[in-house]
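In response to the reviewer comment on reproducibility (Comment 2.3), we provide here a single inverse folding case reported in full, input and output, so that an independent group could reproduce the run without further information from us. The structure tokens appear first.
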């Protein structure tokens, strides 16, 4: 990474995402905060997974770009809210002041609210997809973003501070907080296209693996990364006394678990041919990234 596919699709997505954000009707300062919180770089992993999965399953790029934009709005909203003093209380995100520091807490809350609601409005208007597929996507993504997924995972994360939790509890937390939206990103691309049950099932397990691998890598980087690489201060999990894969397994075994999950994910898709290569490359990217 980055491969030619990665570079091309990232550029294509950024243009589509900017266009989608510009359509959001909001008061001037709220719109400024919204753009500040979304057009600030980032890995764009979830959109790239949606595009790659859609490509594998024969979806139209225009449709997967729209779905990917909606999912990235949800991801951005979650980061704005996670950074708030009542949550993780972070001052920097991607090397810039967090939204509540650059603006204020009320504006940050409303920015997140605006992004979340705009995402579902945007999904409902992908008129080249059938009403049935749009409903499937809204059900899939809302479930992943809500209390059964990302929101529930964030609650479990906050409630785990200052106490040691089991490895099983940690995995449950991360499959919800991080893994659920990553999984929805992949399955959304499959829904937009046309695929058989066997491929869909493989994508589902692949998604479970890389979603957890992503969080293990985050735990590793919180110990091994630098502020320049991460765009925020490392060691925040340690300061907040959170249980992590590092605290429960140690660094070496955490790296081993990361490699195991990645290799299993790649093996699952190896029989699907050349069109699966972007998803395989993205699994490698999660494993090797430095931020």
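Designed residues, in position order:
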């Amino acid at each position: 990474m980055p491969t030619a596919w990665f570079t091309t699709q990232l550029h294509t997505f950024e243009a589509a995402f900017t266009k989608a954000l510009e359509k959001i009707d909001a008061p001037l300062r709220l719109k400024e905060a919204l753009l500040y919180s979304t057009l600030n770089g980032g890995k764009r992993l979830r959109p790239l997974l949606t595009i790659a999965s859609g490509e594998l399953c024969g979806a139209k790029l225009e449709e997967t770009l729209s779905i990917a934009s909606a999912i990235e709005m949800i991801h951005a909203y979650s980061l704005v809210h996670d950074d708030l003093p009542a949550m993780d209380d972070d001052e920097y995100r991607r090397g810039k002041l967090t939204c509540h520091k650059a603006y204020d807490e009320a504006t940050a809350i409303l920015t997140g609210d605006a992004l979340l609601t705009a995402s579902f409005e945007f999904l409902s208007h992908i008129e080249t997809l059938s009403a049935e597929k749009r409903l499937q996507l809204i059900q899939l993504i809302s479930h992943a973003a809500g209390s059964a997924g990302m929101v529930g995972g964030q609650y479990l994360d906050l409630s785990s501070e200052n106490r040691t939790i089991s490895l099983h509890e940690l995995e449950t937390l991360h499959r919800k907080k991080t893994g659920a939206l990553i999984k929805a990103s992949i399955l959304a691309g499959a829904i937009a296209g046309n695929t058989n049950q066997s491929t869909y099932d493989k994508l589902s397990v692949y998604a479970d693996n890389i979603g957890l691998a992503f969080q293990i890598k985050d735990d590793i980087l919180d110990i091994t990364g630098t502020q320049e690489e991460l765009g925020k201060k490392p060691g925040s999990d340690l300061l907040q006394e959170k249980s992590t894969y590092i605290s429960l397994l140690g660094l070496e075994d955490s790296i081993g678990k990361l490699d195991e999950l990645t290799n299993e994910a790649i093996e699952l898709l190896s029989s699907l041919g050349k069109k699966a290569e972007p998803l395989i490359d993205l699994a490698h990217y999660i494993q090797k990234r430095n931020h």
